[in-house]
What we know:
- The protein is of the alpha/beta class.
- Helices cover 30% and strands 31% of the residues.
- The strands form two sheets. Strands 5-4-3-6-7-9-8 form a seven-stranded mixed sheet. A two-stranded antiparallel sheet has the order 1-2.
- Helix 3 runs parallel beside helix 4.
- The termini are far apart.
Amino acid sequence: MYFKTENIIIPIQHLTVELTIINNIDELFDALIQKGLDHEDVVDERIPYWAELWASAIAMAHYLVEKKIVSEGKQVTEIGCGLGLPAIVAGLLGGEVTFTDYLDEALDFAQLNWQQNLPNKNAQFKKLDWRNPDVSVAADVLLASDVAYEERAFEPLLQAFKTLLKPNGTILITEPNRFISKNFFSNLHERLLKAEGTEGGAADSSGGYDWTHSTMTIDRKDHLHLVNIYELRKK
């Protein structure tokens, strides 16, 4: 697949991040459609959303810096990393970072962008479909920027959060104020607590999550985007 790219500079508070981004995203969508409805890439909805630098990723990057979510040595995993902006910022803040995505092209670009910003620091790049989470990439801080577009993704996402968050860890989620997502994310701390209860389904009263919800407005491509930010800290 042919990518038309350019390098841009993204200011994130006191940090500066250089990203290689993709300019022919419409062509990538067209190439996917032309494969036909029965092609495995179409059936599995391997839509090249990863190729766009979304407002939700920019908002998450700013929030990581503002709230000092990541400190030196913290293990950080980003699911559905795309171009990798939030995880790169986490690395600049001292985190030990693992990028995950279920498409090889996304991981290739995330690795390129990492090397442009942290050439002397190691990171992990692992192919992962968060619908089938792998506990080996569990982390202290779990980043999920605009990863759920439909209701059918919500329950698998819940399982991913349960599997990939270490004890006393933090989940940080950003999403672009989709109406379909509002109820799920606003009650996510309760859903997680219930899911982690006893076999009979009762919540474990000894645990729980401290959670906050805030919003951030991001100017991207001459358009203002309202982004929801959910931070959940495991007690």
